[in-house]
Structure formats: C-alpha cells, structure tokens
Amino acid sequence: MPVELESLLMESRVFDSPQAFREHATIRDANIWKESDREFEDFWARWATELSWFRKWDRVLDWKAPNARWFVGGRLNASVNCLDRHLTTPRRTKAALIWEGEPGERRTLTYWDLYRQVLRFANALKALGVKRQDRVAIYLPMVPELVVAMLACARIGAVHSVVFAGFSAEALKDRIQDSSACLLITADASYRRGRLIPLKRFADEAVAQCPSIRRVVVFKRSGMEIEFSAKRDLWWHELMRETACECPPEEMDAEDTLYILYTSGTTGKPKGIVHTTGGYLTGVTATTQWVFDLKENDVYWCTADIGWVTGHSYVVYGPLACGATVVMYEGAPDWPDRGRFWKMVEEHGVSVFYTAPTAIRSFMKWGAEWPERHDLSSLRLLGTVGEPINPEAWVWYYKAIGREQCPIVDTWWQTETGMIMITPLPGITRMKPGSVTRPFPGIRAELLNVKGERVEEGGGYLAITRPWPAMLRSIYGDHDRYVKEYWSKWKGDIYFPGDGAKRDRDGDFWILGRVDDVLNVAGHRIGTMEVESALVDHPRVAEAAVVTRPHDVKGEAIVAFVTLKEGGEHNDHLSGEIREHVAKKIGAFARPEEVIFSHDLPKTRSGKIMRRLLRDIAAGKVLGDTTTLADPVVVAELKERYEAQYGA
Ligand code: WTA
C-alpha cells in the first residue's frame, strides 16, 4: 500500500462543527438517516415536491435493474425550476450570478436578468432550427453566457453537451461526433493567466470534421481577431439583439435527457454520460440545500469549471434551483497574484466555498500569508471534491481558510452519480480529515469484496446498492457499455463506481482512489488509454504505457513510458514534443509530467504490460515481484533510465 494511504488511514483526529454553526444548521437531527433509509422513495418524493411540475408523477420509481425511471409520468422544465419560479418571490431581484472576468471586470445578473437572457437565447436557438432533444455542443469559457446557453437549451428541451474549454480541438471533435450535435456555441477566445486562448480557432478545426454541425454561435469575449464564416457562423450579440423575450418552456418528461457530459473511462473513447430531468434536479436540489446548509442570504462559490460535472450540478442546476447567489470566476487562482480567490471572497462576502484538494494544496504551498491579507470572516462553510484530500491539506484548509470556524464537507461523487453521494452533513457529522464519512440520507453505499460480500471494516470496493434520483441513465449511444461498466461487477442491481475505499470502526468511508485504468490528475479524470492512444499517435512512438506517481500538488502526476520506432533516438527535445502532442490531442491538463524512453516495456508472457511495475519505478520504489516478466532485464533498464533522468 502506498505510504500516503497508510498515513491517511492512521489519521485519528476528529473535529466537531463549531457550536455556532450547529445551532443554526438546517439539519440537526441524526434520525434523518434512519427515516430516509426506511422509506427512501418517500424521502425523494418529498424533495421532488419542492420543484415546480407541469404534471405530477404517477410513480416515484420504476426500477428494473440496471434501468431506472424516476418520477414516472411527471412533466417539468429545468429552466423553469432554476428561473421562473423565483420570479414571483423576492428572489426576482436577487443576484443569481456574480461574475468576475480574469482581467477584473464584473457583472451581476439578477434572477430577472438571467431569465430574460435565457429566453432570448432560447428563441435564437429555436430560430436556428434546434428542436427538442437535439444535441447542442457548448465550448465556452467561464462566462455568464455559458449558464445562459445551458438553461436556454433546457428551456426548449434541447440536450446540452458542454465540453470543457481546456479540451483540445481534437477532443472537441470526438465529443461532437459522438453526440452528433447540430449546433456549436463557442467564444472568440478565453483568458488564462493573462493570455488569450484561441477557442474559435480550435472550434473551427473541430467543426471542419463534424458534418452534423450546421451553425456556430460565437460569443465575443475578447475582441480577438478570428476567422468568421459568413455562411456558418453567427455572433451571439447579434442574435440576442433580434430575438423576443418571450418563450414558453417545453413540457419535458421527467425522464427526458437534460444533458450529456463526456467523461473518461477505461477505453480510449470517452463516454457520454446521460442525465435526465426530474430525478437529476431532485438530487442536486436536496444535496445543495443540506450539504451546503444553504441559507437565503448565502453567497455561494463553487470554483469548479462548468465544463466538469461539479460545475453542472453545483454551479448551475443545484444552486440556481435553490435560488442561491452564485459567484463565478473566469480565470486562474494565481492571477494577477496568488491572493485572487481570497480577494474575491472578501469583496463579494462569500459564505460557502467549494473547491478541490489540488487547489487547496496549491494554496498551502503558496503560504498562509495570501489568505491572511484578506478578511475571510464571511465564510461559514467549506467544501472539497474531486480527489482524496490528504489530512494535512484538510487541516490547513480548516485553519488558514476556515479560521477553525467552518465545517468542511468532503463530498464524494462522480459524473455518473450526478449528485453528492457520500458526505458529512455539516450540522451533525463529526468530521475526520480525509474521510468522506457517510452516505447522504436516502443513499445506500457499502463496501464489498470481489465476491460481493459486505466488508464492515477494512478495505474493499465502493458499491452503491440502491438507485438514486440523479443517477446516470445510460452512456450515450452505447447502453451495453453502461450495463457492462457499471452494473456487472456483482449482481446486476449493484452500481460499481470504480473506486476503492476503506471503512473504519465507526463505519465512516475513506476513499482510496480509482481501481480501474482511470487517472485522477489535479481532480481531472483522464483515461490511461486516452493518453496512451495520444502517445502512440505521435509518428515516432511505437508503444506507450502510462501510470501516475504521487505529486504534492496535483495528487497524481502522469508518467509516460515510451518505446520509439526502429532507429529512433531520444532526447529532451523529443520528450517535449511528445508531451506537447498529448496536450494537443487531449488538452493541456493531460500533458505527461515525465516521459521515459526504453527499448521495450515490461510485459507478462502473455503480452500484458505490467503497469504495477511501472508505477513502482515512477514512484521510486523497491521493485515488486518481477518473476512473471517475459524479459526481466527491461525493468532494470527502465529503472536505471528513470533514476538517471529524474533522480531516485
Ligand atoms: C474521485 C467529480 C476522494 C473518485 C465530482 C471518483 C473523490 C472520481 C472525491 C469522479 C472525494 C471525487 N474524495 N475521491 N471527495 N470526489 N473523487 O467524474 O475517484 O470527475 O470516482 O466527478 O473522483 O470524478 P468525476
């Protein structure tokens, strides 16, 4: 077991929520778990009742494993739930979005403003011929227009497929092709650390290979010069000028698709995770309210990019359905200096702050003097998501950012689960640094061994043993893969998330990380196979294997082992070129940290690459058993190379 996991599991510190927090917490009664467990359908139905429906459901759940239908027969619209229903309340003039651009400009949109923009853009989409359940690809930076575009799709019943703006042209192309999107919404450029990233140029490259795309809508973010196809491209601001501000919402079935979001799996091809409307909104509403203990006057900031699921559920749908004020930031946390986030917390009076362990580890490295320069007393709750948090980072977060006044909710969930699944409830749960503690009420999670037997204490595979409302319904265009990847490890009604975990004596969960070929680098999910395919796509590469090694900020860093084609010579230049090639194929966040060249890769006699050994080499560890190798010399050579290049 890696050293850092051992220390994680020896962690014995416990923290209670501050008294002042507990007194005002929404959920203070620990009976909630028992009650919700006993009648879990009623529990979720009560949450669904909080939403606004055109037609009430006939049945809460229809479960023929592994296919679920939630709120059968119910009809609703997600944009109505995020917008219209707030307009008859004082929330009408409440700030829905408080946005800061990286260069420093600010925009605040009230619920009324956002509503008007969404309706206008929904009409623009209709005028462009977008119909119910058509797919619309969105490739935008973190600007309010991204939220407008998503909700406008929801308004007319179109399915959005948001592609993170850090993805390359090629990754965008794959995702558009897989979903056969008819329209792409993008921007001229996006800002990152003061530089302009030419999004439209990437979009043009992608669309050249996507015959399904009829029109491209371009939001002018920077004024950067772009190529503009008069036949195909349209300016966002021109469309908005011409459209009416009236657009009745489509009545969608609870089970109609709300969105597709691509994520990495164990093959080279990303999967389009399908989320539907009624159950999803119910799940994100419940968790936003209880996990973040949301109050009417909270200023809520989830720092995730909307291109990932955390942004879908906890920047857009959850908080807007709850009528929250959402802070949104376009750029990097260290721009123009390392105090940017804390300056924003102070200036906007942020009270709930949700971020990733990678970010926390960066803040920690930059030093407490940055947050100390700002008044962070508005903060009352902190959250983390995306990867296991090491106890040191947790405690630093608790002290330097939370000033020991804020509970921390360490929330475990996935693109597939749609909603937070295992988490403290901040008013009741005793927190342990590094533990995600217990399933959210109504959720049943367990630890199983390979045979599917329950593990009460110790290590095993995480399993979800009951359907939940925001669960994925399928993989777009590949239902067999859905059944195979998620529902076939044990009996067909147990969901396998692909994570290993541990339970302590109190029954609390500690997530250990992925047990499949999915990497988690800086909280971003990347498939081993995706990176390997990108590597072998380089003309000089013959074969490649990818592993990770522990990294003090990113959690894990990618190490690529590469053999070159006949006659190839390796050098630093080539190593840089190969790393760039991966960035170009997938996105900069997937660029390998290190490339190790070798004349062969360690394989078993049956030809399987032994990643376990490569992992040991990359982590600088004593090598494990090499007796099953076809050619044990290869490993010794690799280890030598690695140590020569990067030190032991
Ligand atoms: C990991 C992100 C430990 C886990 C919402 C999961 C976590 C994968 C945590 C999903 C956490 C997420 N502690 N590990 N609190 N939250 N993970 O789909 O391995 O981008 O399977 O969704 O991130 O990543 P995804």
Describe the structure.
This protein is an alpha/beta fold. It has 2 domains: 19-500, 3-Layer(aba) Sandwich (Rossmann fold), CATH 3.40.50.12780; 518-646, ANL, C-terminal domain (GMP Synthetase, Chain A, domain 3, 2-Layer Sandwich), CATH 3.30.300. Helix content is 32%, strand content 23%. Strands 12-11-8-6-7-14-15-23 form an 8-stranded mixed β-sheet, sandwiched between helices. A 7-stranded mixed β-sheet has the order 5-4-17-16-18-19-20, sandwiched between helices. Strand 6 (135-139), helix 7 and strand 7 (159-162) form a beta-alpha-beta unit. Helix 8 packs across helix 9 (199-207), helix 11 (278-291) crosses helix 12 and helix 20 packs parallel to helix 21. The relative contact order is 0.11. The mean pLDDT is 94. 5'-O-[(S)-ethoxy(hydroxy)phosphoryl]adenosine binds at residues 263, 308-310, 385-388, 410-415, 436, 497-499, 511, 513-514, 520, 525. Residues 263, 308-310, 385-388, 410-415, 436, 497-499, 511, 513-514, 520, 525 line the site of 5'-O-[(S)-ethoxy(hydroxy)phosphoryl]adenosine (WTA).
